[in-house]
Amino acid sequence: LREKAQVAPVSAPKKIYIIDEVHMLSKPAFNALLKTLEEPPAHVVFILATTDADKLPATILSRIQQFFFRPIPVDIMARQLMTIAEKEGFTIEADAARLIAERSRGGFRDGISMLDQLSALASADKPLSASDVAQYLGLSATKTLENLLALYQQHDAPEALNLLGELEKTGTDPIVLSHQLLSLLRARLHQRPELITLVKQLIEVDRHPHPDLKLLTIFMDGAGDVAHKSPEVAPTPTASLKAAIKPPVEKPESPAAVSEVPAPDSPPDSTATDIDWDKIITLAKEQSFAIATLLQQCSWRRDGNTLTLYAGNAFTKKKLDNAKNRPLIATIVQQVTGTELDIETIGQKAPPKDAELAKIAELMGGGEEVNLEELS
Q: Within a domain: residue 266?
């Protein structure tokens, strides 16, 4: 290279040498290149392409100008792809060119490569359509994406899962589908900021070991929002009973009437200790299997209006205290008990209820009370 660089060009004013992935050069190679860069011939231009400029020696960086390439915007790439297609003797629809540009993620080389492969589907009298591109690249139609987002916003999980099942049968890649949904949401996020939760969940699909299951759970959990709000819409039966048989305020002087009021009329019992835990687990399974699994791992203890959940470990406690899970757990408990309880989580196993057992456990360095009848 050093010898050829010294030879002047014959048919052009400049000689251009492009060294791709220059950071992969060895130290002796950099030293040899440095001598040429220190006193370059006037007719030579070196272009050093790299994805990791930090690996270049400081002696090289001090003698060059740096230009940072950024992903090409979709609109610019789509127009350029249409121009290339016209020069190659075929036409491509604007929507089709945009699909290719979006799929290439700002990489012009990838966009041209896809256009070259798709050119076989075009002819002089038939332009390359968006449906051709979508079918070839395994993309979903825009109308399908619109329907999927509409079902998510309507909290219609069954229909959303049916639509996802149909897409799976056609061979749609869940990662590609999540990328398409993100592209569609990017344009709408400023109008519908509440969709930011969906955006965060879709970003995780690409990194998930089972992207298809992750995509299904996203749309299943989206339907839980309606269930979360149900206690606010309709009062619980216990609350309705209290309102219906509440003693009249204008007759406080009647002790007999007060004494005959049934137990449900009184405020929530601050000494209550019992809860239908099986019913809580059943209701949790209807709304979120993940939360039901967490609750099954917990021991619990109720002391009046306080419900303490013993998670057994810090990881389960962290999941219970999650900003999304904790309100749903509180709602489920309120639906079963008929009253709002203060929920506390402890990242340890529940201590024995019996005082003697507690002392034994303390001497042994900890432990958990187990009912042998339940194990048999």
A: no
| Residue 82: pLDDT band with limits 50, 70, 90 | very high
Q: Which of 137, 162, 183 is the last residue of a domain?
A: 137
283 with 359, same domain: the answer is: yes
pLDDT, tens digit, for every residue of 55-78? 888 888 888 888 888 888 989 999
Strands 15-19 and 44-48: parallel
pLDDT in tens, 131-148: 888 878 777 777 788 888
The pTM (predicted TM-score) of the whole model is: 0.44
Domain residue limits at 28 = 2-61
Domain assignment present for residue 368? The answer is no
Q: Are 275 and 307 in contact (CB under 8 A)?
A: yes
Q: How is residue 304 written in tokens?
A: 């009046």
Ramachandran category for residue 8: left, alpha or beta (phi over 0 → left; psi -120 to 50 → alpha): beta
Q: What angle do CA 247, 250, 252 make, to 5 degrees?
A: 65
Q: Are residues 311 and 334 in the same domain?
A: yes
Question: β-pairing, 306-310 with 299-303?
Answer: antiparallel
> 17: which strand partners?
46
| Amino acid, single-letter form, for residue 135 | Q
Q: Do residues 321 and 349 both lie within one domain?
A: yes
**Does residue 371 sit within a domain?**
no
Nearest to 221 by CA among 193, 202, 203: 202
Residue 92 lies in a domain: yes
Distance CA 245, CA 344 (A): 32
Cα separation of 44 and 197, whole Å?
Answer: 53
Give, for 278, the enclosing helix (H) or strand (E): helix 277-287
Are the beta carbons of 191 and 215 closer than 8 angstroms?
Answer: no
pLDDT tens for residues 12-29? 888 898 888 888 888 888
Both structure tokens of 285: 């399974």
Closest by CA position to 353, among listed 303, 281, 280, 316: 303
CATH number, residue 89 = 1.10.8.60
60 and 30 in contact (C-beta within 8 Å)?
yes
Cα 82 to Cα 97: distance, rounded to the nearest angstrom:
7
Domain count, the chain: 4
Structure tokens at 278: 């099986």
When comparing pLDDT for 356 and 305, which is higher? 305
Phi, psi of 8 (to 5 degrees): -70, 150
Q: Do 51 and 86 have their domain in common? A: no
